[in-house]
């Protein structure tokens, strides 16, 4: 029963994350005004905003103007719910569950904004760093020897790549890696960085051989960092010992 509660909570939070994904890049408040159709501008009723269910009942279209609703909305809601439920299964209810739920929420917003707009908003970075410092401060013994070095080492490596590649990677990726590092610590941050390079390389290779992208075309790296961080959260404690051997 508690798993069902967390799943439903994840759906609701996912709905709010959709608001953040849509409004933050446009410089709009995530609180006011109330949700409305981006096409016709009519205010949505509560029955139009039930996570996933409203999308299905409305056939993926606005209740007023019948314009198609992006499939990103139910994907984010279901994805958030699934990740929260898996976090509960993996860590049970406790500090780690809340810590990683917040990290995943930040990563979801950042990744989808980066995919659509190729930017990583500073607002999310600042929120992530503050939250990471607060959660990491609970483990005060490891704050200075693990979490803060995690932020500095992970972002430092990407910063070096930015300098050497002369802009081949964005500054937002550097700042996002700092957020991941302050949450995970330096060992898991390095593992997440390594996994992100593998995921990014595979994806870039597929795009090249399918000729959907050229060698000089930009591909947002934030989603690979986010996905790698999630993999590390779930399986990092098993992989890290072998990785550092």
Task: Give an overview in words.
By secondary structure, the protein is mostly helical. It folds into two domains: 1-93, no CATH class; 121-245, no CATH class. Helix content is 71%, strand content 0%. It is built from nine helices and no strands. The chain is globular, with a radius of gyration of 19 Å.
Radius of gyration: 19 Å
Task: Tell me the strand percentage band.
Answer: under 5%
Provide the low-confidence segments as ranges: none
Listing every helix as H and every strand as E from the N terminus to the C terminus, the arrangement reads HHHHHHHHH
Largest sheet: none
Per DSSP E runs of 2 or more residues, the count of β-strands stands at 0
Keywords:
245 residues; mainly alpha; 2 domains; 9 helices; globular; transmembrane helix; Prepilin_pept_A24_N; multifunctional enzyme; aspartic-type endopeptidase activity
Short description:
By secondary structure, the chain is an all-alpha fold.
List the SSEs and their pairings.
Layout: H1 2-23, H2 53-57, H3 72-91, H4 95-117, H5 122-138, H6 140-165, H7 171-184, H8 186-209, H9 222-244
Helix pairs in contact: 1-3, 1-4, 3-4, 4-5, 4-9, 5-6, 5-7, 6-7, 6-8, 7-8, 7-9, 8-9
């Amino acid at each position: 029963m508690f798993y069902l509660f967390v799943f439903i909570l994840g759906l609701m939070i996912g709905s709010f994350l959709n608001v953040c994904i849509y409004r933050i890049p446009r410089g709009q408040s995530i609180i006011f005004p109330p949700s409305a159709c981006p096409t016709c501008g009519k205010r949505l009723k509560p029955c139009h905003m039930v996570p996933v269910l409203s999308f299905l009942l409305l056939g993926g279209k606005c209740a007023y103007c019948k314009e198609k609703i992006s499939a990103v909305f139910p994907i984010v809601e279901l994805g958030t719910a699934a990740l929260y439920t898996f976090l509960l299964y993996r860590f049970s209810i406790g500090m780690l569950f809340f810590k990683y739920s917040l990290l995943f929420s930040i990563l979801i917003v950042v990744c989808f904004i980066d995919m659509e707009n190729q930017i990583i908003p500073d607002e999310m970075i600042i929120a992530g760093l503050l939250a990471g410092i607060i959660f990491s401060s609970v483990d005060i013994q490891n704050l200075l020897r693990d979490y803060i070095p995690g932020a500095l080492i992970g972002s430092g490596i990407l910063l070096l790549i930015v300098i050497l590649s002369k802009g081949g990677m964005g500054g937002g990726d550097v700042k996002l890696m700092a957020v991941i590092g302050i949450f995970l610590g330096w060992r898991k941050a390095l593992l997440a960085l390594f996994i992100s390079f593998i995921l990014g390389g595979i994806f870039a290779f597929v795009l090249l051989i399918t000729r959907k992208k050229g060698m000089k075309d930009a591909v947002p790296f934030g989603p690979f960092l986010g996905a790698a961080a999630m993999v590390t959260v779930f399986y990092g404690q098993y992989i890290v010992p072998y990785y550092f051997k």
